[in-house]
Amino acid sequence: MIIVMKKDAGKEALAEVKKRVRDLGYKAHVIHGEARDVIGAVGDERGKAVLQSLESLPCVEAVVPILKPYKLASREIRPEPSVFELAPGVTVGGRELLVMAGPCSVEGEEQLLETARAVKAAGARVLRGGAFKPRTSPYAFQGMEEEGLKLLAAAREATGLPIVTEVVNPRDVDLVARYADILQVGARNVQNFPLLRLLGQQDKPVLLKRGMATTIQEFLMSAEYILSEGNQRVVLCERGIRTFETATRNTLDLSAVPVLKEQTHLPVVIDPSHATGHASLVPSMCYAAVAAGCDGLLVEVHNHPETASCDGPQSLTPAGFAAVMDKLRRFAAAADRDL
Amino acid sequence: MIIVMKKDAGKEALAEVKKRVRDLGYKAHVIHGEARDVIGAVGDERGKAVLQSLESLPCVEAVVPILKPYKLASREIRPEPSVFELAPGVTVGGRELLVMAGPCSVEGEEQLLETARAVKAAGARVLRGGAFKPRTSPYAFQGMEEEGLKLLAAAREATGLPIVTEVVNPRDVDLVARYADILQVGARNVQNFPLLRLLGQQDKPVLLKRGMATTIQEFLMSAEYILSEGNQRVVLCERGIRTFETATRNTLDLSAVPVLKEQTHLPVVIDPSHATGHASLVPSMCYAAVAAGCDGLLVEVHNHPETASCDGPQSLTPAGFAAVMDKLRRFAAAADRDL
Amino acid sequence: MIIVMKKDAGKEALAEVKKRVRDLGYKAHVIHGEARDVIGAVGDERGKAVLQSLESLPCVEAVVPILKPYKLASREIRPEPSVFELAPGVTVGGRELLVMAGPCSVEGEEQLLETARAVKAAGARVLRGGAFKPRTSPYAFQGMEEEGLKLLAAAREATGLPIVTEVVNPRDVDLVARYADILQVGARNVQNFPLLRLLGQQDKPVLLKRGMATTIQEFLMSAEYILSEGNQRVVLCERGIRTFETATRNTLDLSAVPVLKEQTHLPVVIDPSHATGHASLVPSMCYAAVAAGCDGLLVEVHNHPETASCDGPQSLTPAGFAAVMDKLRRFAAAADRDL
Amino acid sequence: MIIVMKKDAGKEALAEVKKRVRDLGYKAHVIHGEARDVIGAVGDERGKAVLQSLESLPCVEAVVPILKPYKLASREIRPEPSVFELAPGVTVGGRELLVMAGPCSVEGEEQLLETARAVKAAGARVLRGGAFKPRTSPYAFQGMEEEGLKLLAAAREATGLPIVTEVVNPRDVDLVARYADILQVGARNVQNFPLLRLLGQQDKPVLLKRGMATTIQEFLMSAEYILSEGNQRVVLCERGIRTFETATRNTLDLSAVPVLKEQTHLPVVIDPSHATGHASLVPSMCYAAVAAGCDGLLVEVHNHPETASCDGPQSLTPAGFAAVMDKLRRFAAAADRDL
User: Which GO molecular function, any one, fits this protein according to its record (chains A, B, C, D) (predicted)?
Assistant: First the structure.
């Protein structure tokens, strides 16, 4: 931490702050500047918010952190990218791109199975589908719950595709884990810390979505919650952040891909469907995501988008998805990835 | 809903969309415009996302909602402001301003009791203090949990102040409700729908904080989750939204007060501490909040901010809080409110 | 500046960066941290972007500024608030609150005069009105230009109110200055540096509006452009920033008032009309602004808002404005201000 | 426009609003809804803000526009993409990708020439370089002005590359146009309407940058200012928008590419340098931009970034740029574009 003193703080104040820094277990190193003094607090600053509270002293102008606050997620701990299995034969983080596709929510057997077969035929490696749906309105369709999980399991039987599905309540973690291969944390739950802790104790990989207003640093701190409980299989998913722009549902932050790749060893996938909110924008964002260096995609596909009970406008048709996959192969090759 | 057709959509497409609108149980009313046609879908559009999915038809440009999606929270259902008791003798929503104050987190008996006595002496009517702390970092102090709840209950014994404290896990709702008078939902949990549903089944009032990236409409939808389960005692709390500005921790959206007052009957309070992040900015935001027409304040006070294990920079000292309360009385009077 | 070295940067890299810092005219002061080293560059860092460019060295992780980049606008240069005359007998920055009111744009003699008389009767001290209108659409009404300036001058004759009006083109500065008492820079021109420089050479006070995406620090840098050319009479105007919230036209950042008051000696006024975009929200934001400690208000008033050629929805009627002024007196008194 | 009446607005109010709509020259078409009535105002709503002012009537809840407000920029006017020459032999909007590269600011003959030769050798088709620099601080380097323009012209002589450079003052348009091939409008001037009008009267193509807080619709309205004055050669440039994220200088909005491609026929290029602010993030954003379907790139290259007087941290070295161009060819081929 760098502690910036106020311009008119005198020698006594400086001595007092130095003493407090030392009392908190840090070395205090003073730089006398032209306009003001600063104190470098040397020591591991992570996990000690108290140093930040020195900002409430009248003689202190600001306390500026220098170290990144995450550890296990960082490249400094693990310089090489993490590559791991999500299900037998399906890995993420390596040369092969991971495409996960399926409907926003499970609505029925025929809808799911028809969509699952179509996405598999087009080259998807994982089936997505929501059984527990966090909806803005209490009057909206909330998902088929366990019934939906059973349909997902049946679709896995039928297609061989492992399934990723969201868990929204700590209470349901065990239930969902009984059916799902990959446990998804939605954008609204990115800082649902009790949920993250429980997922950190599971033996299943976790797909963690960035929240609408989550900085990349906070996003990595949320991953750190899972990692610090012992579960090292975390896949990060950028799905658009909230900005002033209304032409898209959210603003897809593709520069998060190289930023994350610099800072963490965890794999990064992109959800262009929730990011843009419009099916017509999804294909170009799939190509761009792969060109940006992501490790995979999460795409909404519905056999009849115009009747979808949720997020129809952003869902590709099976034919649309197949066309995207065809063209995506060219970009994957350009990026030295296999699809 | 207003369904806007594309410019070159022909008669057949129009007829097809009209049919679909009717099949979904709405009346379809067409306006032929100069540049394009629009269809008004007449019926209760709330709770039916399927209408929105018509946007995925190639002939439809956009589907624009007209009705507000919330019901029970709206002024249309209940034109008069809600006034209710939070604890015996402590009401919100009426002429009396409600000031809730105390430390960000409960750290120990002396800290809590000393602070509680001070805020009571200065005129606070409710004691705040966190026992379960949702922290960005897994390595940061996470709260004293049940031990903290016990200290809060002891402070209530000692001072007579009812207590408000946060619940972050659906699992803990019953536990927290055994100790607390008012159950707080933090900004990160504003769309933790399983938690909201459970709180809707409690017989205790709920203090619901707006999220960092929650629109006012979404905020009211979250309140609607609680109301629709039967609990009518919801207090809304604006605590700053996330913007590009970094001079403050968040940007306090005080215009949310008159907007909410137009749209809902629920009481509205302001948290200037989390909004600004700096104790020196808190007093003027307290005055402004009351002038804007809010029903109360939630203010962080700590007996020794510079040693606080959480949010020290934004905490007032007891003396600072007393000075704010003194001056606040003048603004309360100007706003025809009692303090 | 604090130069943060990368974790694995060796001794040679450190020596190289130290040398470069010294070559740029700074003293280099190293702190050896546990995880990485940092170099404090001691000297006046303002005006030297080159130091920042050291960030492009492979061994440097980040370059973090410590000093605020503005000088003349800062409290460190001038600890007391600036109080100055805008026109004979009309001051800003002192005990008296300054209320400026009038239509968004000058539309005709009757409209302007009727409105001017009404706002004067209600207590406004300055008449506002746009003759050059920066409009998002090239097809929208662009203002009456010099004809409008003449009408403003006539309204000043008739009422005695000095006038504030916007200048959007450096070419027009002299023209507008011939008519206006106060020269307004609109939000879209907050970083129109050639315009700011010219206004810095004028002998008339400048009302500088914050841009929709301007940080407080950038806002003060724009004021610094004017001050550094010699014109010390700059009034800062917060008028809402752009955020994700759509219930209001912009989000009024009232916490900017105390932040600015801490950092600068310049007077601060609030424009609640553009901030909220809805007349019904304007009154409470006027009261809140005064309670927050601002030095004045800029309010849109139109004698017939529903026929306004610009910004009708956010304009108060004369009667509405008079009612606001009446109630505002109570808040002014509570804030120890005269109205 | 759709005019939404308030819930309790009676028949008389409805009749009154219908009359006003007709008096403004529109047809009024009423839909009686279950909860409220709406009026469709049929006619060309562009350029008539008065209709919006009906929102100030007490019986009106909202006025919702249906038509896009731009004309000449729209796909509806010109369904095919615009393809045009920027300089002899250099076109934009067609199959060939346009790469513009060079330093942020012209600093001297050697710097410019060395960089120009390097970017040409790597495949750039246009040389960029700022002579008039809009800088946040009045104390920062403001550009070499006409001297810089002369150096740019000399670099064109030496390399054959046409030059793009920024104009920040309407007064300088003729001066800059004498030297430059393409006139650039910077992000801060995207709503400098007098400047846009003048550029609309020039016979040189214009590179228009999106502002930090400019919606896509407003961006197209700014283009419309230029088009409506007669200059049809406008190139749109997305360069990042301002959001809460601080890991990057701005947030590159790559989904703006497909959105713009749907709405306008104008070519779209991407500036990954200003968007990200860090050279290490630029390569992947170049690849992603091309995959997203853009027509070209604007990239900062400096022969010695660590000594740059402006934006060093985001500048590629010549070697770095050459490596990007090499790999970019693969993505261009995947996107069916030539480079």
Answer: transferase activity
Q: Does A285 touch chain D (CB under 8 A)?
A: yes
What lies within 8 Å, CB to CB, of A4 at 6+ separation is: A36, A38, A60, A61, A62, A63, A64, C66
Q: Which two three-digit tokens encode residue A150?
A: 């059973």
pLDDT, position B49: 61
Q: What share of chain A is helix, strand, coil (3-state, %, to 5)?
A: 40, 20, 40
Q: Which of A66, A217, A259 to mutate to test the interface with C (most CBs of C within 10 A)?
A: A66
Largest CA distance in chain B: 76
Q: Homologous superfamily of C84-334 in CATH? A: Aldolase class I (3.20.20.70)
Beta strands per DSSP E along chain B: 2-5, 27-32, 37-42, 60-64, 84-87, 90-92, 98-102, 126-128, 163-166, 182-185, 206-209, 234-238, 268-270, 296-300
Q: How far apart (Å, rounded) are the C-alpha atoms in residues B276 and B262?
A: 25
C238 neighbors C268 (Cβ within 8 angstroms): yes
ipTM: 0.95
C171: closest CA of chain A, how far (Å) = 33
pLDDT in tens, chain A (339 residues): 889 898 888 899 999 999 998 988 888 888 888 778 889 888 876 556 678 888 888 899 888 887 788 889 999 889 999 999 999 999 999 999 999 999 999 999 999 999 999 999 999 999 999 999 998 889 888 899 999 999 999 999 999 999 999 999 999 999 999 999 999 999 999 999 999 999 999 999 999 999 999 999 999 999 999 999 999 999 999 999 999 999 999 999 999 999 999 999 999 999 999 999 999 999 999 999 999 999 999 999 999 998 888 888 999 999 999 999 999 999 999 999 999
Residue C163 pLDDT > 90:
yes
Secondary-structure class of domain C2-64 per CATH: alpha beta
β-bridge pairing D2-5 and D37-42: antiparallel
Q: CB distance from B231 to chain A under 8 Å?
A: no
CA distance C125 to C298: 11
Digit-coded pLDDT (tens) for C196-235 = 999 999 999 999 999 999 999 999 999 999 999 999 999 9
pLDDT, one tens digit per residue, over D34-89 is 778 889 888 776 555 678 888 888 899 888 887 788 889 999 889 999 999 999 99
Where exactly are the structural domains of chain B? 2-64, 84-334
Q: Is D259 on the interface with B (CB under 8 A)?
A: no
Q: What is the pLDDT of residues B266-282, one digit of tens each?
A: 999 999 999 999 999 99
Q: Which of residues 158-187 of A touch B (CB under 8 A)?
A: 168-171
Assess whether pLDDT exceeds 80 at residue B301: yes
Q: State whether D42 and B36 contact (CB < 8 Å).
A: no
Q: Best residue in D166, D245, D306, D314 to probe C by mutation, most C CBs within 10 Å?
A: D306
Which chains lie within 8 Å of chain C at 3 or more CB pairs, if any? A, B, D
Q: How many residues does chain B have?
A: 339
Nearest Cα of chain B lies from the Cα of D247 at a distance, in angstroms, of 12
Is there a contact between C244 and B213 if contact means CB atoms under 8 Å apart? yes
Q: How far is B278 from chain C (nearest CA, A)?
A: 10
What chain D residue is nearest to C227 in terms of C-alpha separation?
A: D138
Q: How far is CA D172 from the centre of its chain?
A: 20
Q: Least CA distance to B4: which residue of chain D?
A: D66
Determine, for residues A288 and D284 on separate chains, whether the beta-carbon distance falls below 8 Å. no
C289 and B285 in contact by Cβ < 8 A?
Answer: no
Is C42 in the A-facing interface, judged by CB distances under 8 Å? yes
Per-residue pLDDT of C22-53, as tens digits, reads: 988 888 888 888 778 889 888 876 555 678 88
**Can you read off the two tokens belonging to residue D59?**
């019986």
Tokens (6 digits) for A88 = 């037998």
